[in-house]
Amino acid sequence: MAPPFLIHPIGTVRRQGDRTFIDIDPAFGDGLLGIDGFSHIVVCYWLDRSDTPEARGVLRTHPRANPSNPLTGVFATHSPRRPNPVAISLCRLMSVQGTTLEVDRIDAMDDSPVIDIKCFIPSTRFEKETVRVPDWV
Amino acid sequence: MAPPFLIHPIGTVRRQGDRTFIDIDPAFGDGLLGIDGFSHIVVCYWLDRSDTPEARGVLRTHPRANPSNPLTGVFATHSPRRPNPVAISLCRLMSVQGTTLEVDRIDAMDDSPVIDIKCFIPSTRFEKETVRVPDWV
To answer: A114, A121, B117, B137: which could join A75 in a potential S-S bond, CB 3.0 to 4.6 Å?
Structure first.
């Protein structure tokens, strides 16, 4: 078994009333240069409430916690209970103040560890390709 | 400093001629149930060639390794050199054979560790929102 890879948090999700902030650790602040040139960012965060051996052992689930949805492999869902509890959200970047980003919304719970931020560059592929999803979606 | 989070690979990228496969570790095969209902998947993989203290310490870079692009924070790029070398690719799922997925293409190098697969569910938000990117894109 290969040794695990190590993820170090770079920041934290902070919910304040109906606003959502991402506080980047000032040690990583240099990594934000130019981010205000983008309207949208991809936020990768850690589902720390699902970082337990039990939750990480789940391989099948009923999507959206709805028992009437068919039993589905976690890799065919966005379930937080999965072997590596990484989550990805596409967010509109509202403002940048120092090392604090304000975003429009995110599914993350308050205080979730942020592990990466990437710029969002739109693709033209979906203008040409048809996207297909199963009925439960 | 909080302890790091641990990522365990769930599979591997395999390039074969001009085709690209993702071999999921059979121990995680149950997680694929129903994935063939989706035309596209999100593949998260580990940039293992950038998993060095030096590469993980890079916070600013010239995007696309082009010195004429402005110096930019890594969180405003897709650079492989970043604190947590996680990469995300949206792929068309061509076929599923046992625990092997064939995808149309992926930026990943051969033998890159795969850390998560998620179904792709299109969003309607970009029909309503304007996406803005800086000149270097």
So the answer is: B117
Of A7, A33, A60, the CB nearest to B5: A7
Task: Tell me the DSSP string of A22-84.
Answer: EEE-GGGGGGGTTGGG-SEEEEEEE-GGG-SHHHHT--EE-GGG-TTSPPEEGGGS--S-SSS
ipTM: 0.93
The CATH number assigned to the domain with range A15-47+86-119 reads 2.40.30.70
The pLDDT tens digits of the residues spanning A87-120 come to: 999 999 999 999 999 999 998 999 999 999 999 9
The C-alpha of B78 sits at a distance from chain A's nearest C-alpha, in angstroms, of: 6
pLDDT tens track for B19-55: 999 999 999 999 999 999 999 999 999 999 999 999 9
| Candidates B1, B72, B92; nearest CB to A34 | B72
